[in-house]
Design goal:
With 510 residues, this protein is mostly beta strands. Helix content is 5%, strand content 39%. Bound molecules: CU-O-CU linkage and copper (II) ion (2 copies).
Amino acid sequence: MSQGQSGGAGVGPLNRRTLLQCGVAAVGGAMTSRLLAQPFLNPRVFAPAPAPVFDEELEFDLAARPRLYSLRPGAPTDCWYYYGSVRKGSPAALTPVPNSPLGPTFTLRPKQRVAINLYNGLPEDHVTHWHGMDVPANADGHPMHAFPPGATYRYEFDVRNRAGTYWYHPHPDMRTGFQVYKGLAGLMIVQDDEEQSLQLPRGPFDIPLVIQDATFDANNQYVYNPDAMSGFFGNSLLINGMPAAPLSLASRVYRFRLLNGCQSRILKLRFSDLTPLVVIGNDGGLIDQPRTYPYVILSPGERVELWVDLRAKPVGTQIMLQSLAFTGGGTGQGAAFDVVRLSVDRARTDPLQLPATLSSITRYRLQDAINAANPRSFPISMVPPMTWVLNGGVFTMTGLAANEIVRADTLEVWQFSNPAGAMAIPHPIHLHGRQFQVLDRAVAPTRLADWNTVKDGYVDAGWKDTFMIMPGETVRILVRHSLHTGMFVYHCHNLPHEDMGMMRNFRIDP
Ligand code: C2O
Ligand code: CU
Ligand code: CU
């Protein structure tokens, strides 16, 4: 397998040892905000297409290829990019993100039959995963399905998810972090009748914001130097793949769909003027009712949807979406920085009313789990040399422990625990396949002080596919396994950790 071309330090010959050895000197947490120094730019925002016609069958061509893209003044950046087109069905089902190196946005409806022909135009093996989507094992982007340059992989699945903000990104073993970092990521938005019947902001007022961090060299090329312990922390922010520029907004209501697409950086989000953080959705779509948070924790892989009401803001108001400091994050993690500035530039009237009820979500009950008395237990630990692992072992392509075999369509309780020791750091844990519910959290008394700096921002309502776990924390989730049988993975979504082997198979048997 060949290295990424220019731009950014690849990680050397491909094995886990070199992954571990590289990048001892992480860039660290000194996130310098470039926002204030930047000239005022038009917002680089985009909206998902309006509800497309319902095509029973959709077929797309997608190609991952290198592309030079002007991200910053001066030399273009050597990016990797998803080119896409609709072969069958409404063109509205795949819309490019204007002025952005992100992949095009899929807009899907439940019950559609989807085929995606993915061509690998990269200089190395590749496979793409549809994060949050409940798809057959051979369409899930398991690393075992990585395919070589010049080949095409055909994905076929039915849309079984409810309305929500899902996303897609590479998933080859040991190269996920690098390929995502080079720019390969896009949104997969599902719309359904329940969600469309609500009076929520639409079109240009429904704004996805993919938040990532990166470091560039003097020639505008990506620098990637992950650290084995903590991961990768860039020194500048990207919004929808572009250097963060202010968003020019009107004094009305917006729906923000936030995705943390960072390699490792955890966000603790708040508006600088304390505009309430009214959460209406998260990983698996709308939550039951709007809920207000003092701040929102968004770890890599997680999504949150906000109702952002700017109607009381006079023209000229500037609000910063900030990430606040927290403790217990380890090296490079937990510093405060600015994410993106909201600039209220024009007055508008807007009659929208925040719906009192968004969706009906039946909470699973612990006593209904087939293993209620005996949760599957997945500890996080570190094995030599400095490798974070799940369930006691490093990922191998087919490696499966006895406690990683489950039955389709059974409701189970899974328990994850993070050590409390001084070395411990937070991890975003993600399961492929079904959306689940967070049952409860507990924390070791010795790590309570750190936990208190994040706990009020956990959006554990609704449906989740990724959750953060702090040092000393134990999290129990309730998951009804997919009807799709076969091999899937669960892993840490700190991408350098995933690449290091903090990933495991689980197999769903009939
Ligand atoms: Cu978004 Cu397996 O990951
Ligand atoms: Cu996933
Ligand atoms: Cu991790």
